[in-house]
Amino acid sequence: MYNLYEKIMEFVNWEVIEFIMEAIETARKVILGTLQYLSPSSLVKNEISLVDQKTLLFQDKRFPFNKLYCLAIGKGASRMAQGARKCLGDSIDWGGILTKYGYREDVEDFEYFEAGHPLPDENGIEATKEILKKCKKLGEKDLLLFLVSGGGSALFTLPENNIDLQEMIKVNELLLRSGASIDEINCVRKHIDRVKGGKFAEECKATIVSLMLSDVVKNAPSVIASGPVVPDPSTFSDALRILKAYDLSENVPGKVLSFLRDGTQDKVKETPKKLRDKVFYKVFDSAWACEMAKKVGKDMGIRSYILSTSIEGEAREVGRFLTAVGKDTLEGKTAFKPPCIIISGGETTVTLNANTQNGIGGPNQEVVVSFSIYARGTERIALASIDTDGTDGPTDIAGGAADGKTFEKMKRHFEDPTYAFNEHNAYKLLTKSGCAIKTGPTGTNVNDLRVLVVL
Predict the structure, then answer these.
(1) Cβ contacts of residue 136 below 8 Å, gap of 6+?
(2) What string of DSSP letters covers 270-316?
(3) Which residues 6+ apart lie within 8 Å of 394 measured at CB?
(4) What does the radius of gyration of the chain's CA atoms come to, in whole angstroms?
């Protein structure tokens, strides 16, 4: 096994280590050790291979092809493409990578596209047009290897009809700030976009083999990256209902609202509910990441439990809940026997209001700060929480770690840390107090990973 003490320095600034006690150090080591296992390149190499130069093997099934295209989209696209290039080599007739600015890692003979995330931009639209043009040239005897990772929904985008980019951005901003779940956000996205909700698969005649790194709770393939190659069970009516439920209908651009309403009246085509038997896929999810964290914990010689792989809800409430789990475990009120680590996955949300639009942070940061508030004064418990892609919210950190002493450390920099927290300034609270975890882009995204340590 790799040396965790050596690997940890690749991810965390030394100043972070200076103040930590045993529990918080253990939480960090499990988190950072787990990232070593979540390699997108290795994942792809382990799942596909060549029988010969014109036959792909996937899940014990052979896929002969005339031409082979490999398209990778998302924040992990570069590293997934690296894995494909290593095992498929010159059998790839065309390779394309569409990823977020700053996530570029060149792959031999692959064409590169960079675009905006979490909000779409013009480069994403132009890249999607070019990719769609290329893939529409494939025939029924050709094969498309479609590699999907977190962020694919914002990056791989092409607005329907006369909806323009600014209107698309407006809808995304409203949804992201509303507290809507990723399922709900993607339902709306699918119905105003030409490549989402199975529409891309309809345009591409080739057989499609897809490996998906899931960044959505419940891991529905139709929701991952808004399901470009998967039938869509949602409807235009569902999209309108979601906008109404979050009081967004009056603020959504008129063209978008009109298009959705036309869909309910069959004036525009609904997303496909069935696709011909040509799409084959496998999903890698939060449960996979939690199992890897459990393995790391056991390798370190500490009892390791998985609490849940699909925790959802407001980030601050999740932080409060995990504090309660930690305290109850200390007092022998749970089935978890200390010393131990308690692992959880899923995806939390942060709901902003008109008075907190300028706060800087992310869901994992809010979980950690919430924990620091409710756990203050409690010894022998700590929590580390990260977004596995290395970017939590629109920030440069993956998340953070806290224990019962962290709140007092924050008070050295903020007169009232709770006030700053209520203003959603979790980023400043963590970075100024040396509590942030900064990994840089990891190349993977399987939601959030949290490790609660009880000693």
Answers:
(1) 203, 204, 205
(2) PPPS---S-EEEEEE-HHHHHHHHHHHHHHTT-EEEEEEEEEEEEHH
(3) 118, 360, 362
(4) 22
Token duo for residue 453 = 């340590």
d(C-alpha 410, C-alpha 144), whole Å: 51
The predicted-structure confidence for 90-110, as pLDDT tens digits, reads as follows 999 999 999 999 889 999 999
pTM confidence score: 0.72
User: Are the C-beta atoms of residues 131 and 98 closer than 8 Å to each other?
Assistant: yes
Q: Which amino acid appears at position 225 of this protein?
A: A
* CA–CA distance, 338 with 358 (Å, rounded to integer): 40
Q: How many whole angstroms separate alpha carbon 382 and alpha carbon 379? A: 8
Q: How far is 23 from 412, CA to CA, in rounded Å? A: 22
Look at the chain and count its residues. Answer: 455
Reduce the DSSP state of residue 402 to 3 states and report it.
Answer: strand
User: Can you say how many angstroms the Cα of residue 397 is from the centroid of all Cα atoms in its chain?
Assistant: 14
CA distance 11 to 179: 30
CA 117, 123, 128, 134 torsion-angle sign: negative
Domains and CATH numbers, the chain: 4-37+286-454 (3.40.1480.10), 40-158+193-234+271-284 (3.40.50.10180)
The whole-number pLDDT of residue 357 equals: 65
pLDDT value at residue 6: 46
Contact in structure between 227 and 219 (CB atoms under 8 Å): no
Q: Which positions ≥6 away from 254 have C-beta within 8 Å?
A: none
Residue 416 backbone phi and psi in degrees, to 5: -135, 90
pLDDT higher than 90, residue 1: no
